[in-house]
Design goal:
Blueprint lengths: L9 H26 L1 H13 L6 E5 L2 H15 L4 E5 H8 L8 E6 L5 H7 L8 E4 L5 H5 L2 E4 L11 H18 L4 H29 L4 E6 L2 H17 L4 E4 H5 L10 E7 L4 H13 L3 E6 L10 E5 L8 H5 L1 H14 L12
Parallel strand pairs: 1-2, 1-3, 3-4, 4-5, 6-7, 6-8, 8-9, 9-10
Helix pairs in contact: 1-2, 1-7, 1-8, 1-13, 3-7, 3-9, 8-13, 9-13
Length: about 350
């Protein structure tokens, strides 16, 4: 998959391999969460540990926090108060509320994040529930209810672990809400696999379109907000290129005013709020900005400065999976052309 003449490094090869491995790992996770007796037992224990009279809070750092947003969004849509909170903020400002929550779900792909380790050491009076990719980690040892991410060893930055954490969060939220999810998971995995193939073919077009932009902002709503935050993190870690992310609603309240010809907005216009993303794209174009519009519906008529990338529609609540693929593909194309200095110690296990 390397572009002829493009720089290459171990980081580039690791990222490419792990990007391509995502559909397989996602399918394996969905199958295991539906049929593996040990995992089914842990899911039942988690649901039983959630108190019905309090909000469910999901917490993590980095890509783990981003993945939590899909779970909290799905629960909220189904009438259950639920929020995602960065672990550092929860640890230093809200740990005293833990006993009053319906439940706190910890997400740490490595199981070694300092903030998560500190939370597992607190006496909360509640059972500690963990989603992690590392069964030999401090967090895993301290948790009482433990669910695996099943992403395998990851040597580049988070790709597989974000995808599988997002899917696991949606499954956990579905179990708490009492909804069957297996059929939706199968459809989401199929949409994800087909979408990955499409964005992989278009990655150089996306990178060329984004080239020269001084400011890149990735915008989303609901589950796709988690993908927007993750996408900016992914791009910055692998390319050292400046990128940021906001909810599309927050972007309207101020940041939209400084859009100009140096600005690129990547708008993740998926799910039932997709039309709001279309409108935001037009407003950015009116200010002479460039827009990559990621859509699962018929895109607007082509305009100068607009690149529409269509992905397959995923079931409601699962769009956080497909939303992340375009920033991932942009990252891949960028490092294939310019290389990457990213180095990460192996912190996850099969």
């Amino acid at each position: 998959m390397t572009v002829a003449g493009a720089p290459s490094s171990g980081a580039v090869e690791n990222y490419r391999r792990e990007f391509l491995e995502q559909p397989q790992r996602l399918a394996e996770l969905a199958s295991a969460y539906g049929t593996n007796p040990a995992i089914r037992t842990e899911l039942r224990k988690l649901v039983a540990a959630i108190a019905s009279n309090g909000p469910v809070v999901w917490t993590g750092m980095g890509a783990s926090y981003c993945a939590a947003i899909a779970g909290s969004t799905l629960l909220s849509v189904n009438g259950w108060p639920s929020f995602a909170v960065e672990s550092s903020e929860f640890l230093h400002y809200a740990a005293g509320t833990w006993s009053r929550l319906g439940g706190l779900i910890l997400i740490s792909t490595s199981g070694e994040s300092t903030e998560l380790v500190s939370l597992t050491r607190l006496d909360s009076g509640q059972r500690k529930m963990l989603l992690s990719n590392h069964a030999q980690s401090p967090c895993w040892s301290a948790a009482e209810i433990r669910l695996p991410i099943l992403a395998g060893i990851e040597l580049a930055n988070a790709t597989k672990t974000f995808t599988n954490s997002t899917a696991a969060s949606v499954i956990i939220a579905s179990e708490i809400a009492g909804h069957t999810w297996q059929s939706e998971a199968a459809k989401a995995a199929e949409a994800f696999s087909r979408s990955l193939e499409m964005v992989l073919e278009q990655r150089q077009v996306i990178e060329e379109f984004a080239r020269g932009s001084v400011n890149i902002e990735i915008l989303g709503r609901g589950a796709a907000l988690g993908s927007a935050l993750y996408g900016a993190l992914c791009l910055r870690e692998m390319t050292l290129r400046r990128a940021s992310a906001l909810s599309a609603g927050a972007f309207r309240h101020g940041p939209l005013l400084d859009v100009d010809a140096t600005h690129l907005a990547m708008i993740l216009a998926l799910g039932h709020t997709g039309a709001l993303g279309d409108r935001l794209a037009k407003d950015c174009l009116a200010r002479k900005g460039k827009v990559v519009l990621v859509t699962d519906h018929q895109p607007p008529q082509h305009e100068a400065g607009l690149l529409a990338i269509r992905v397959n529609a995923a079931p409601a609540g699962w769009e956080g999976l497909t939303a992340a693929l375009v920033p991932q593909a942009l990252t891949l194309a960028h490092i294939e052309r310019q290389g990457s200095q990213y180095v990460r110690e192996q912190t996850t296990s099969e």
